[in-house]
UniProtKB/TrEMBL annotation:
<protein>
    <submittedName>
        <fullName>Bifunctional non-homologous end joining protein LigD</fullName>
    </submittedName>
</protein>
<feature type="region of interest" description="Disordered">
    <location>
        <begin position="1"/>
        <end position="23"/>
    </location>
</feature>
<feature type="compositionally biased region" description="Basic and acidic residues">
    <location>
        <begin position="1"/>
        <end position="18"/>
    </location>
</feature>
<dbReference type="InterPro" id="IPR014144">
    <property type="entry name" value="LigD_PE_domain"/>
</dbReference>
<feature type="domain" description="DNA ligase D 3'-phosphoesterase">
    <location>
        <begin position="32"/>
        <end position="137"/>
    </location>
</feature>
<dbReference type="Pfam" id="PF13298">
    <property type="entry name" value="LigD_N"/>
</dbReference>
Length: 186
């Protein structure tokens, strides 16, 4: 017969170790499709209590050969991650916004230091975007920091000529709406 103490010890050994509660919280990411002056995708990563944000004109690509320009823009409040709707004319970013993808991200190295160094590597667990990615700051001239959003080679990578995720899945992951439909519903 197994004693209660040894049974408890056996269960503890079988359970995976628990992360420090201070670091266990998942970091959110969101990609918002934004029809402002020009259609683009706003790529946002939760870091240090805010959403670090980049405007990606062509949207993300699952092809590691594609290096997508990502222009850094102002940080956004965390509660903006779920915003979907219309930004009024005359306001910054006026136009339609849908939540194109969302989920959690896992940094592959110390995120604050990697961000400061200009080379942030991470894993995404979203509804459309998954796997390993990198944001790399460039030395291109301009008034705003320019980065490249790059899909790393892994099982979720796909050649652009085989599959274009932004064309194949244009809808919101929250409402199912497409750009143009949000305006019609209001």
């Amino acid at each position: 017969m197994v004693s209660a103490k040894s049974e408890h010890a056996r269960k503890q050994d079988a359970e995976p170790p628990r992360a420090d509660p201070g670091t266990a919280a998942a970091l959110r990411f969101v990609v918002q499709k934004h029809d402002a002056r020009h259609l683009h995708y706003d790529f946002r990563l939760e870091l240090n209590g805010t959403l670090k944000s980049w405007a990606v004109p062509k949207g993300p690509s699952l092809d590691p050969r594609d290096k997508r320009l990502a222009v850094q823009v102002a940080d956004h409040a965390l509660d903006y991650a779920n915003f979907e709707g219309r930004i009024a004319e005359g306001s910054y970013g006026a136009g339609e916004v849908i939540v194109w993808d969302h989920g959690v991200w896992h940094p592959l190295e110390a995120p604050a230091a990697a961000y400061a160094a200009g080379r942030l590597r991470f894993r995404l667990v979203g509804e459309k975007l998954t796997g390993a990615w990198a944001l790399v700051r460039t030395r291109l001239p301009g008034s705003k920091a320019q980065w490249l959003l790059i899909k790393e080679r892994d099982d979720s990578a796909r050649a652009a000529e085989e599959y274009n995720v932004t064309e194949a899945q244009p809808q919101s992951v929250i409402s199912g709406a497409l750009i143009g439909q949000a305006r019609a519903k209001q």
